[in-house]
Amino acid sequence: MRQKLFGTDGIRGQANTWPMTAEIALKVGMAAGYMFTNGGRRHSVVIGKDTRLSGYTIENALVSGFTSVGMDVVQLGPIPTPAVAMLVRSLRADLGVMISASHNPYKDNGIKLFGPDGYKLSDEVEAEIEAQVFGDIDRLLAEPDHIGKSRRIDGIVDRYIEFAKRTLDRTISLSGLKIVIDCANGAAYRVAPAALWELGAEVVPLGIAPDGRNINRECGSTVPDHICRKVRETGAHIGIALDGDADRVLISDENGQIVDGDQILAVIGENFRETGRLRGGGVVATVMSNLGLERHFERLDLALIRTKVGDRYVVEAMRRGDYNVGGEQSGHVVLSDFTTTGDGLVTALQVLSVVIQSEKPVSEVCRRFEPVPQLLKNLRFSGPSPLESEAVKAVIAAQEMRLGRAGRLLIRKSGTEPLIRVMAQGEDQTLINGVVAEIVAAVQAAEQGEPVAGAS
């Protein structure tokens, strides 16, 4: 049986291990390039990447694949994922590619594909590409005189900086604000500090010295304590933490307290409604978002539309219902007035705009609701998923009954990493802790091949 290439966010895996090999990248370039080339004119693809060491291997393989089927390539170098989504439209390309594993460790890498409209490809198109990859791939090769060219163009970083700045009203200045920005040694290490400085802020940059191996390591949005400490040390007004490809953001207030994606959705959603910009009468979020956010919006007579976990599902729901604000608790926030995918820098700028206009500290502006107690545990596994174990299923069913209507329980396998995520939320913190602990113990026992307690 053929293995599946695409997950919930493109192709992802450990570098030099299937499917993240040069061979697969070459074939993906051939298949995707062929599908988006229909003759009659020169066709092009833009390729961006984050700062992972393996990006060189994957990029060169993709370039070979695209050019071999007759598509011209524009190599963008290290640049955020949302910049690729923007530039595929700006440069009138037929396809966009981002080489990144987002918030994953440096040993991982991934391939994300964007259509000419700047949106990630649908499941159906990805399935067609996959079928081509595992089919008679050599038949896609172009004639010698139709082979594509590859080039790099200057000023790409400046284009994205200018785009991000233009999402703010020209009257907004960051003058007088001290901002800590943590770029996770990733794709935004040049653009984010520069954009904030050009808008007038005093910038304290972190995570701006990528070496190919330090992306997301003890920094960025996956290690928010790092930026919280720096905000307190420097007396900054706000901290902004991006992930490796800068499509997600978390914020630290002036006290070093984290503002997650749910609070950010509340800040921007309310501001958009107050200024007459909110479409759809609500905001799109996922099943992971806190129950407190849902109750907060109910009080404001705003809808909270929930989707499966994954920014692609958020975007799909936004497009179906004509919503212009959506996102995830993890910090993926999509503002479709400006972008087609999550954009950490643009999201942070919108929050800063609200802070400046309110003339209040971040701790007041960004604490819109009191979260319901919530606990999330991530469990790494190897081999088959422990969630397939009948004993684990029995424990989960028992804990669901124990929780009853007092809260919400979500157990799922990550679509981008070999992780099982166990999340529970409700009014009783002790009950939540107990429910999660029982499920975690069951999953760990199954992973280690031991008897699962409480499965009878």
Q: What topology does this entry show?
A:
Blueprint: E1 11-14, H1 22-35, E2 43-49, H2 55-68, E3 71-78, H3 81-90, E4 95-99, E5 108-114, H4 123-133, E6 150-152, H5 156-165, E7 178-182, H6 191-198, E8 202-206, H7 225-234, E9 238-242, E10 249-252, E11 258-259, H8 261-274, E12 282-286, H9 291-299, E13 303-307, H10 311-321, E14 325-327, E15 333-335, H11 344-358, H12 362-365, E16 374-380, H13 390-403, E17 407-413, E18 419-426, H14 429-447
Parallel strand pairs: 2-3, 2-4, 3-6, 7-8, 7-9, 12-13
Antiparallel strand pairs: 1-5, 4-5, 9-10, 10-11, 14-15, 16-18, 17-18
Helix pairs in contact: 1-2, 1-4, 5-6, 8-11, 13-14
Walkthrough of the structure:
It contains 14 helices and 18 strands. It has helices at 22-35, 55-68, 81-90, 123-133, 156-165, 191-198, 225-234, 261-274, 291-299, 311-321, 344-358, 362-365, 390-403, 429-447, and strands at 11-14, 43-49, 71-78, 95-99, 108-114, 150-152, 178-182, 202-206, 238-242, 249-252, 258-259, 282-286, 303-307, 325-327, 333-335, 374-380, 407-413, 419-426. Strands 1-5-4-2-3-6 form a 6-stranded mixed sheet, with helices on both faces. Strands 8-7-9-10-11 form a 5-stranded mixed sheet, with helices on both faces. The longest helix has 19 residues, at 429-447.
